[in-house]
Amino acid sequence: HICSIFFFLMIRRPPRSTQSRSSAASDVYKRQEVNSTFLALFCLFSTLVCAARASPNICLGGTNQAILSQKQQFLKFLEGPCLPVVVVPGVMCTKLRVVIQCEEFKSKQPNLFQTCGWTTCSDDGKGRRPDFEYNLWIPDVNSPMSLISLTKKSSQCFAGLLGLVYNASAEDPYQRFTSIPGAEVSWYGHTFETNEHSNCGAAASEDLLKIPLADQVCKKCRGMRDFRLHFESLGYQNGLTYQNIPYDFRISIAANKGVKYIQKAVRKLHERTGKKVILIGHSMGALMSLRALTNMTQEEKDAKIATFVSLTPPFTGSSRALEMLIGGNPHLVVANMIGVNLEVQKELGRQSGFLYDLMPTFTSQLYKDEPWMQHLNARIQLESLYSNPEDINQHWKEFLSQNQSPIENFPSPLDKCFDVFTSIDGNCQTRMKHLYEMSKVGSKSYSKSFSDIRELLIRYALDNSRTIDFLALKNESGIPFLPNPGVKTVIAYYSHIETTAKLLYNSNPIYKTAHDQFQFADGTLLGGGDNVVPTEGPLLAAFKWAYEFNQKVEGAKPIKLLELCSVHNRKTVHDFLDSSGIEDFKKNEYIGAPCDCNNPPPKSHFNNKNEYKGSDCCHTGIIQDKSFLNYLTNIVAVERKNTKDITKAGFYNKSDAQLKEIVDLCPMLSIP
Predict the structure, then answer these.
(1) What is the per-residue pLDDT across 408-449, written as a single tens digit (0 to 9) for each?
(2) What is the rounded distance in angstroms from the CA atom of residue 663 to the CA atom of residue 660?
(3) In whole angstroms, what is the distance from residue 291 CA to residue 285 CA?
(4) Ramachandran assignment for 307, one of left (phi > 0), alpha (psi -120 to 50 degrees), beta (any other)
(5) Smallest Cα–Cα separation from 270: which of 667, 654, 651, 653?
(6) H or E element: which one contains 308?
(7) What CA–CA distance (Å, rounded) separates 517 from 519?
C-alpha cells in the first residue's frame, strides 16, 4: 500500500550513499533526525488519511453530495482539504465546431463550397444548402467532411475547412491565425447550437467520437470524461471548483488563446475559493500550461498556484508529429480510406502550427554541456555499455562519485522498477536512446540541432511554405528552452513501452508524397516512453528544473518525478506538513506511482510471444487510469487543517441561483 510504504520510508535513516552525496542532503537528514518524532506522527497521520482518500466526497469531509444543494456543496468544499483544479487536455482532445456563414463562404470560397457538395444558400428546397454548424473534429460519419473518405471530395472538404489563414504581420500574436472566410471554427459548447450543452467547457473534451457504442469501440474517445467524473466523485463542482480548458489545438502555442483561458481560470478559481490552484496539463496541455506559467509574474504564481502537474508531457517533442510533417502519420489512417488521409495531414502541416510545437526539439543539443545534462549522458552511457549486473555494480559507485543526481532517490540501474511486465528488463533504466538524433533520410542523418531540424523540414516536409514561420513561433513559445515553471511541479511519465526515437527513410519521401502517396518511415529506432512521447522529454525537464532549484535559481521550486507503474520508492509526493496544516513538498525526488497495469493481467493481454507489455498504460491511457487517478487525489487533497476564514472566499455569499447562473454562463471561457 502506498501510504504504508510512505510511512516506513519517511522514518527510516537514509542509505549511506544518499548521505554522502552532498552536504545539503546531509543537512536535510540531520533535520529529519532532530524532528523524527514529529515526522513519525505526521507520517502515521498521513497513512490514515491516505486510506480514507479512496472514499468518495473526500473534498466535502465525507458528506454525501447527493443531499447537498449547490451552495452547500461549495461551502463544504471551502471547508474541506481539496484545492481547486484547472485541467488542460491534450492535442486533438477538444471537439471543434465549424459555423458556416453561407453567403460569405459561397462568395469567398466558391470552389470549396462546391467541393463540400453545396449548391445554394436558399431554403427553397432547390439545391443543397449547408447546415449552420458541423462537428469539424471529429466529423460525423455522414457529414460532408467524413473521415471515411470514400470520395476524394469528402477529404478535400475536410482539409479545406480544417485549414487556417496565417498572418505573420499581425501585431497581436493572438490574431495571427484566423479561420477561413465564411467558416468560423470554435470548440464544442462555444457556438450557438452547442452552447446549452457546454457543461462549462467539459463537453468539448469528452465523447469525441459520435457513433453508436463509441465507448466499446474506442475507449480513448471518451477523452477527459473519466477524469472529470473522478474529480466530481471527490466533491468537485464542474465550472466552480473544477475547470476544463478547451482550446483550438491547431494553433501554435505562442499564438493560442487557450493560454489566456488557463491564466484566467487560475485567477478566477483562486478568487472564488481563496485557495491556491492545482494546474494539470496532459500532453500538449502541459506545454500550454507551461507557456501560461512563464507568462505570469512570480508574485502571482506564488500567491495563486500550489502545484503544476504535467501528465506524459512532450517537453522535447515526439516523432509522431515529425512523421506527419514529412510523409504522413500511419497511426491516423487505415487503408487510405478511414481516418486522416494525406491531404488532410498535409493541410494541417501547411497552415496549423501545432505540429511544429510537438515535433522533436533541439533541447538536448542546446544543454549538452550543462552539469545536469552531463549526468544524464553519463547515466545513458552506463546503461548502454554494461549489460551484466556485476559490471554495472562495479561501475555504479564510480558513477555516483563523479555524477551527482539533482533528483533524490533516482534509482540505480540495478534497482527493481517493474515486476509485472515481461517484455522488458524489470530494472530501473532511463531507456533514453538516440538523444541527439532525429531522423535519417537515405545516407544522411539529421541531428536535433536547430539547423538540421530546419534543413530536414525545408527539404522533405509535405508543405514547407510556412516552415520558417512556424519554427520561429515554436521558439517564441519558449518551450524548446524548457523555461522554469516557477511553481512546484509534478511530472508523471511512463518508460516501459517501446517508443519511436528516430525515423528512418530509405529514400527521399518526396518521390511518393509529390504524387499524393504516403511515405511512412521505412524503419524506426526505439527507446523507452509511453508509445508517443519518449522518456527524454519528461526527464530533461525534471533534471533541468531540479538542478535549478538546487542551485537556488530565482523562482525555481522543487520537482517530483513520478514514473508510473514503477514500484521503486512508492509514496506520496508530500514530504512535510507546514505550519498551517497543508501537506507540501520541499525537495526534488523520484517516486514510483501506481498504474492499472501493476495488477497481474489476464492471458488475453499477452502477445504472441507470451509477453506482457502493459500497453494500456500509455500516453492517452493515463487520464483513464483508475489507480493513478486515486493517487492523484493525494496531490489535490492537502489541507489537513483548514484554518482559513472561508467567509473571505469570493463566492461565499453567492446563492444557489447565482452559482447555477455562473456555471451556465461560464465566464472563465470568455476573453474580452
Answers:
(1) 999 988 889 998 887 788 889 999 988 899 999 999 999 999
(2) 5
(3) 10
(4) beta
(5) 651
(6) strand 305-311
(7) 6
